[in-house]
Amino acid sequence: MVTRKFFTVLSVFVLVAVTCFGQQNEVVFLEPQAAQSPQVEATNKLEREERTSINVGLLMGGGSLIGADLEFLVGKRVGLQLGAGISSMGFGVNYHLQPYINSQFVSVQYWHQGFGDNHYASYLGPMYSFRARKIFQFGIGFGTVLSKGPGWERAWENRKNEPTGNIALLYNIGLFFPL
């Protein structure tokens, strides 16, 4: 029951955020004289120059409650992402849908939650990340459970219904800042 309420609230929040922060269509008016001369392709600074970003938020940095990721483009659309959080770390290979850092992307992510006796689980799987034109970002995907640690066993020892599947929902929400 609690998880249904959580996912309902998360879905409403995502829909509101996409509506408020989504890309807007822009209208361009050309003067008659400007139409006769060749036009230089207009791009903003974010689309042209930034090749690195810092992402900060909930369940970032490998799925930590509070974490951060550093992403840098290594090709025209391919980025590498390294992250760390309060008790986790992560790595990702991203493919951007547009050739700039502030665009949406799909990726393959590795999340490692907890260390030592507090290790909960490690996951590997695909993820889709939405980035608004400025600041807002969220991601959703799924991961295969690669390993379960002592934290997993402690979390499920007093419950009757331990998860039997090897797939987990991965998601995050936060802010990104191009550098």
Brief synopsis:
By secondary structure, the chain is an alpha+beta fold. It has 4 helices and 8 strands. It has an 8-stranded antiparallel β-barrel.
Please describe what this structure looks like.
With 179 residues, the chain is an alpha+beta fold. It has a single domain (50-178), classed as Porin, CATH 2.40.160. The chain is built from four helices and eight strands, in the order H-H-H-E-E-E-E-E-E-E-H-E. The chain has helices spanning 2-21, 32-36, 45-48, 150-156; strands spanning 52-58, 66-73, 78-85, 88-96, 105-113, 121-131, 136-148, 167-178. Strands 1-2-3-4-5-6-7-8 form an eight-stranded antiparallel beta barrel. The longest helix has 20 residues, at 2-21.
Write the layout of secondary structure elements.
Elements: H1 2-21, H2 32-36, H3 45-48, E1 52-58, E2 66-73, E3 78-85, E4 88-96, E5 105-113, E6 121-131, E7 136-148, H4 150-156, E8 167-178
Antiparallel strand pairs: 1-2, 1-8, 2-3, 3-4, 4-5, 5-6, 6-7, 7-8
Q: State the major sheet.
A: 8 strands, antiparallel, barrel
What fraction, in percent, of the residue positions are helical?
Answer: 10-25%
> What structural class is derived from the secondary structure elements?
alpha+beta
Number of strands: 8
CATH architectural grouping: Beta Barrel
- The CATH class name reads Mainly Beta
Uncertain regions: pLDDT < 50 for 5+ in a row? Answer: 1-30
**With helices defined by DSSP (H or I, 4 residues minimum), what is the helix count?**
4
Q: What number of structural domains do the residues give?
A: 1
